[in-house]
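ARCHIVE CARD
CATEGORY: sequence design from structure
SOURCE FIELD: tokenized fold
FIELD CONTENT:
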């Protein structure tokens, strides 16, 4: 299922209000394969729901880099100030990822970037414990970063009820500042 611009985080909010909140909870939404979670399009822009981890980084919507639609989401970082730069968001509802095998995001690394830049997902459930996926090394240009949710890195409870999503940039300490652009955060099935 491809999104019309807003991303599933916003589109499913109404369904959760009807399904989950009427029963006293925030709701759990079972995701299917090929679900666009966020394409950083739409009004209000979903980019206002994502945040940089701390003030040493900036994150914002961009029209300069994207793979589909007209926007991507750019993270400017300085590894001398923050060694684990990331963008993150807390979901409006719990995501049940048990019916999907992969979480996928397109990530852009500009020419001239260090060769050891990688990205990875970190997910947390209601308990708050973060589970970090293995890192994926980026190459210059656009990369399709595919994370296997069936791996041992993710526990069953978090997979059933993910409420916190991070996209983390990793590199050796001492690298200068840089940027990574994200687009088309989605799920996929084998």
């Amino acid at each position: 299922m491809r999104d019309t611009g807003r991303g599933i985080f916003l589109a499913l909010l109404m369904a959760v209000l009807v399904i989950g909140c009427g029963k006293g909870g925030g709701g759990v939404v079972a995701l299917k394969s090929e679900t666009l979670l966020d394409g950083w399009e739409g009004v209000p822009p979903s980019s206002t729901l994502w945040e940089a981890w701390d003030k040493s980084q900036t994150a914002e919507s961009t029209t300069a880099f994207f793979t589909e639609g007209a926007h991507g989401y750019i993270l400017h970082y300085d590894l001398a100030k923050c060694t684990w730069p990331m963008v993150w968001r807390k979901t409006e509802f719990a995501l049940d990822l048990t019916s999907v095998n992969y979480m996928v995001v397109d990530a852009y690394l500009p020419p001239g970037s260090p060769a050891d830049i990688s990205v990875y997902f970190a997910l947390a459930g209601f308990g708050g414990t973060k589970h970090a996926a293995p890192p994926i090394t980026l190459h210059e240009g656009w990369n399709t970063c595919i994370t296997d949710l069936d791996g041992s890195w993710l526990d069953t409870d978090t997979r059933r009820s993910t409420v916190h999503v991070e996209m983390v940039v990793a590199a050796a300490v001492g690298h200068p500042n840089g940027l990574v652009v994200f687009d088309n955060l989605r799920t996929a099935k084998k």
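CARD ANNOTATION: The mean pLDDT is 81. The chain has one domain: 8-188.
SHELF: design records, drawer C
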